[in-house]
Specification:
This protein is an alpha+beta fold. The chain is 43% helix and 23% strand. The protein has a three-stranded antiparallel beta sheet. Strand 2 and strand 3 form a beta hairpin.
Length: 61
């Protein structure tokens, strides 16, 4: 199992959680204190789901 993590912004984090991925933690973005970042365990399945988000979002435009 891959123990690496990946930082995700709010819109993608919602998509990942909607698709069954659990976040490891969330934190305030140190570059922008008005924004929250979400930490997920990185995996090929997570990356695949992220690419589906890009396709889903492109279809909305």
């Amino acid at each position: 199992m891959n123990n690496e993590t990946i930082v995700i912004t709010q819109s993608r984090a919602g998509w990942l959680m909607f698709n069954g991925f659990g976040k490891v933690t969330e934190r305030l973005d140190w570059k922008d204190r008005n924004r929250v970042i979400y930490i997920f365990n990185d995996s090929p399945k997570l990356r695949e789901t992220m690419s589906k988000y890009n396709q889903f979002k492109a279809n909305l435009l």
